[in-house]
């Protein structure tokens, strides 16, 4: 019976003598490892590129391409460069050992080897490899966290500072010159204050939702919902801003689209996609919403006749380090976080979002959610 280990590591055994591969395979499989054999260097490199190999046991003395050459080639390939290589050979001269390490090997065991020593060293190098992977992931997470922190501070410093400055300036004018102003001037300033305050509140909402999603404090409560009803609710919700630009929003969802999802998150997804479409659609344009059931998924698309985007802009839409707050066709402002939040909420539902766009023609944001009727 194979021993229980947390992960079934995959080991590549490379030796031109078949019986050696068979013997090593039996020793390793008893300990629960998955073993793949290769009898020459070229085959070993091909396997390492195709499979997810965790460690390589590599013979040095092989025809055509010796072990040192194989190791050097593996270290030149992106996918295989970090795989630990242990040399197994009867060559035990100091020069051979030096060449083994200089070619990228992590250890050197002479033949004939002791089974327990071999297994112990394999276990040690697998643990070191796993530790390096874990540290690399932690490092990437820290880099991502710093990017988010920097973006958060950037939005506070710029996107919130500007509208708040406008509110303060308008309020100061009212405070110090209200007695000298006529009614129309006062109304104009009060409208500026009200409109800017609403935009600032919207920016804050985005920031708070995003912060909660990053810290894992946002709740996820899937319930049975009808996407057709949610579509209508959100069209009505943004009616004021769409009417100001004389943009027609049409829903072509004519049937119930029932699934199990978090209603608050789905509402946020719809609001972000619709407000984004209105923002980048010129006055008099149109937005159409479609919904179908496709391959066990509900697929919703929000298609506009807006300014469109080039492919390089599409590639950056859902990346935190590429967030950019672009002004809309009527100079509307935003944090650039709306689509990031949308992407995160869709992924939370195990869904996917894609974008089709053409400059001067418009954009089509398509998101899919698994068709689930059981909320258990």
Which spans of ≥5 residues are poorly predicted at pLDDT below 50?
1-6
CATH class of the largest domain: Alpha Beta
- Describe the strand arrangement of the main beta sheet, using strand numbers: 2-1-3-4-5
Strand % is 15-25%
Tally of individual helices = 11
What integer is the average pLDDT?
Answer: 85
Largest sheet: 5 strands, parallel
As a percent range, the share of helical residues equals 40-55%
- What's the CATH architecture name of the largest domain? 2-Layer Sandwich
What's the shape? elongated
- Rg for CA atoms: 30 Å
Terminal-residue CA separation: 37 Å
Q: Assign the structural class, choosing from mainly alpha, mainly beta, alpha/beta, alpha+beta, or little secondary structure.
A: alpha/beta
H and E string: EHEHEHEHEHHEHHEEHEEHHEE
Number of strands: 12
Give the CATH topology of the largest domain.
Heat Shock Protein 90
Write out the CATH superfamily name of the largest domain. Answer: Histidine kinase-like ATPase, C-terminal domain
| Domain module count | 3
